[in-house]
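User: Can you help me understand a structure? I only have the sequence.
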Amino acid sequence: MDELSGAMSSGQLAWVAFSFVLAGTVKGVTGMGLPTLAMALLSLALPAASAAALMLVPALLTNLAQCFGPHGTTLLRRLWPLWLALVLATLFAPVPSLASGTARPVLGGVLLAYGAFGLARPRLPAPGRLASGLGALAGGLGGALSAATGVFVMPLVPYLQALALPRAALIQALGISFTLASLALATRLGGLEAAAPPQAPTLGVALAAAFAGMALGARWRQRLPAAHFQRALHAVFLLLGLLMLPG
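Assistant: Let's start by predicting it. Here is the structure, written out as tokens:
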């Protein structure tokens, strides 16, 4: 029986709570990172498909608030190729399912790439006239990786950062992108037996922990040096990625 469709042990519930408190805290401080960190931590104890099924609702609900803002119309004009490709690739990309044995090492590779990118912090050139084409490419690659791993940060985040959007617009763009990816992934997982919806008590623990972590992170946001926190977070992604690679 799947870990989520059946009763979880107290140890598993404790790990779920820890994972979402930590992931929620990261999102409260930085405005992003909950799906990536939650998926990485949950995958250490659960199959990738089960981890993704548990991650989706907290990720969706915590991202919805970021979707609203004054930049929606402008972002739609600029980012519709990215968002369209992201949704279509998440739904239809011919990649191994999250229930396959390849999900964990591929997730490890994505975390390694994201951690290395965050630590290196390369200055990316503005896409200029190529923005639409590169956006569609970034959305397609991000959607394929989302379908294969449950994580949708690469190469979405680097592409959006390269656009040099105002901070408020970037946060809104991230919220919309992650919400669309979550909805598309939930649709794709709907027909996957290994990704059965979690039981209500398990989901309740995940949601309570995620929002408690976000509240804690919001309180810490002004006290923590942002640059140091980001570097430490990407170092954690590197470590988690290494743990997921085949031994």
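Now, to help you interpret it: DSSP finds ten helices and no strands in the chain. The first helix runs from residue 10 to 30. Let me know which part you'd like to focus on.
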